[in-house]
Amino acid sequence: MLELATRLKNVKVSASAAMTDKARELRAEGVKIVSLSSGEPDFPTPAHAIEAAHQAALAGDTKYPLQPGTVALRSAVQRKFKRENNLDYGLDEILVANGGKQIIFNALFATCNPGDEVVIPAPGWITYADIVVLAEATPVAVACPENNQFKLRPTDLDAAITPRTKWLILNFPNNPTGAACTRAEMRAIADVLLKHPDVWILTDDIYEHLTYDGFEFCTIAEVEPALKSRVLTVNGASKAYAMTGWRVGYCGGPKKLIAAMNNVHGQATGPICTLSQAAATAVLDGPQDLLKERADVYRDRRDLVVKLLNRIPGITCHKPEGAFYVFPNIAGCIGKTTEGGRRLETDADFIAALLEEQHVAAVHGGAYGMSPYFRISYATDTETLKEGLRRIASFCEGLS
User: Which of 148, 149, 225, 317 has a CB 3.0–4.6 Å from the CB of 309, allowing a cystine?
Assistant: First the structure.
């Protein structure tokens, strides 16, 4: 009998991926599902990225590339960091991998030992804690409550850091809440970290270009240059450029760390698809007008979703600064019974019943470390959002 590795015993399948897969299965069976569970832009990949990949294929750029990434792409990443974040990285301080997820995997596997702790603001992306566990370290959640706009309080961060703390993971704009930190708020976090010189910082900036109402993004190594020597700045093409399937993540960090990550990278997968690298080079160096245009569309969707959610009995919804998620509070629904006879004891019950009775797929807040909430992705068209919110309203109006 095959025995699985013990390292997997505390690692669950991603709740968002599981719900998206379930929605696809039901849709294939003919059920009219409204899927609000996937963090995937509904926009097309920019045409000039596709053309760059096409031309690269025609030119025979189909062999193994350099493991850390092609010189062309790392140079484009270098220019992006300087242009948009005022950060200077050498080419040997930049790594390209199969999406931001693999960058994070490489970093934690290259640095964590049993007994190390990784501080993760909660609610936070499901995968952070699971990768920490796989790396045989211990995730330490720090609550970012709604009454602080789901942001990390410096005093809470300071209290969570111990002599065993190896990393702090930051993700603002945040998945699942959409919360983003102002420069002053990031400055306060940086001040705490200056007091703890042995703590490394991984900042996942994948939603950098998705901020609204004039909100200005900032990243911690820019805000406090004295921290740059222990910051890994992570980003990618997936969200801003609607290139999820191309699998391009990148990062900038200290040379020694990048070399160690590249070692892990080489044993796990090796260099990423040459055509994807050509496409990513094109979007990073190409016209950036589409970022603002698409962000304006997301802003309008956010406003619609927040407005409609706040009209639903039992639900309240904070208006976030960025990303393409909202994280509504469903405390007013817990303890009630659905029209189908299901009693809602948890937000997981709420999501399961919503899918079963109204065929709407979303993700329960407990999966991200905070209940009773659920996550809605508004990275979909307006009519789908309206229909999904209509069904959620019908569901909640039927509770007793």
Answer: 317
pTM of the model: 0.95
The CATH number given to whatever domain includes residue 359 is: 3.90.1150.10
Shared-domain flag, residues 279 and 326: no
How far apart are alpha carbons 76 and 66 in whole angstroms?
15
Q: Which CATH number do you get for residue 68?
A: 3.40.640.10
202/140 same-domain check:
yes
Same domain (yes/no): 213, 271: yes
Could you list the residue range(s) of the whole structural domain that residue 25 is in? 6-44+290-397
pLDDT digits over 50-85, tens only? Answer: 999 999 999 999 999 999 999 999 999 999 999 999
- Do 177 and 235 lie in a common domain? yes
Q: Are residues 55 and 24 in the same domain?
A: no
Under the banding of pLDDT at 50, 70 and 90, the label for residue 24 is confident
The residue from 231, 258, 285 where one domain ends is 285
Q: 32, exposed or middle or buried, with CB in 10 Å at 0-12, 13-18, 19+?
A: exposed
